[in-house]
Each structure stands twice: as C-alpha cells, then as structure tokens.
C-alpha cells in the first residue's frame, strides 16, 4: 500500500490525505453495479494519484476480460471503452502524472497478461492519449485548468464497430453551472423554474468526426 500522506505541508495546503485500499473498496462496493459496467462514467474531482479511479478501472477490466477475453479485437475495443469512461482532476501536477501512469500501468499489464506478444502498440498509444485528456491538472472549485483556461473533458462513445465519436464539454457545462450564473432573483423575474434547471442538457463546445478507436490521437 502506498503512503497516505506525502508531506505535512501538502496536507495543510491541499488537504492531501490519500484513501486506503480497504476504504476505497468499501465505498466502491456501495455502487458495485456501476463499477462493473464497462461504460459507466466516473469523474473524480480530487483524484489524487488515483486510488479510486484505479480500482474502478481494475473492476471494469475484469468484466472486459470475462466477456471479451477470447477475442483480442473485442477486448481492445472494450478496454478502450473502460478507460475512456474514467475522468479525474487534481490540482497537483505530480498527482495527475502518477494517476495517469497508474491507470496506464493497469491497462497495459492486463492487456499484456492476456495477449502477450500480440499486443498492439497503437492500442496502448490510444490508451495513453485518452488518459492525457481524461485526467487533468486543474482546480475543481474554479473549474479551470492549470493554464487558466476552462477544464474541458471529451465524451467518448464507441458507436459503430471500432468507430468512436468524441464531443468536448466544459467541466462547468457538465456540472450545469455558469461562471456568470444568474441569481435566484433574476430567475424568478424571468419565471424560470429553478427545479428544472438541473435537468438542462449540456452543449458540447466541439464535435469531432468519427474515427477508429486506434486513431484518436490523430485528432490533434
Ligand atoms: C483528501 S485527498 C484525496 C485524494 C484521492 N481522492 C484519494 O482518495 O486518495 C484530496 C486531493 O484533492 C486535491 N485537491 C485539493 N484542492 C483541490 C482543488 N481545488 N481542485 C482539485 N483538486 C484539489 C489534492 O491535491 C489531493 O490530491
């Protein structure tokens, strides 16, 4: 098990105390069905080095293995889906790097264990790319990335065979908040039903053409 504290200063400045494995599992067991649904989306806004996200990925990959372990292409597609549905934000750059590496390591070793010499580099490159987009360094309170721009997350969907669609959303839109949110008085004046606001569907800021899951890194 890794240490729960990196330094006293980090605990004081960022509340950084990592969750131990037993608690991670107990909490994830509360939503067990979702952790075992390959395409169920998880977003952790203070993901640290990935204690929760790595366990979610392990559980999803166990299901991918059970269902699709006999066909390499199917396994690769659904491993892609499993990784692509996991999102995280942390304010500390080293945590983000560690989280990405950890998730990559889990996917790489599971894939390698099953298919050994048949492993395809382009699949692993696609996984790396997903993690570079889905796990981000930023402030989950202001919803801004380390460079001050809004945090943007891609939504990935496997649509036809090996084709993937990508739509980008700001984190703020996904949370249904605005940096210039109207006050309740303004809403009342406009006769907007406050209860219905939460049901608004976020709009993507960018749509990408369909592409093979092996070629997502070519988007940029
Ligand atoms: C209590 S630790 C939990 C880490 C991880 N979720 C776990 O359970 O092991 C809190 C994490 O939040 C991060 N953090 C603190 N303030 C943040 C902010 N405003 N936005 C994003 N992450 C933040 C810290 O760097 C730290 O990794």
From TrEMBL:
> Could you name the domain of life of the organism this protein comes from?
Bacteria
InterPro entries registered for this protein in UniProt = N4_N6_ade-DNA_methylase (IPR050953), SAM-dependent_MTases_sf (IPR029063)
Where along the sequence do coiled-coil regions lie?
Answer: none
Q: Which GO terms describe its molecular function?
A: methyltransferase activity
Respond yes or no to whether keyword S-adenosyl-L-methionine is given for this record. Answer: yes
Q: Which GO terms describe its biological process?
A: methylation
Query: What are the entry keywords?
Result: Methyltransferase, S-adenosyl-L-methionine, Transferase
What protein is this chain from? Type III restriction system methylase
> Which species?
Bifidobacterium longum subsp. longum
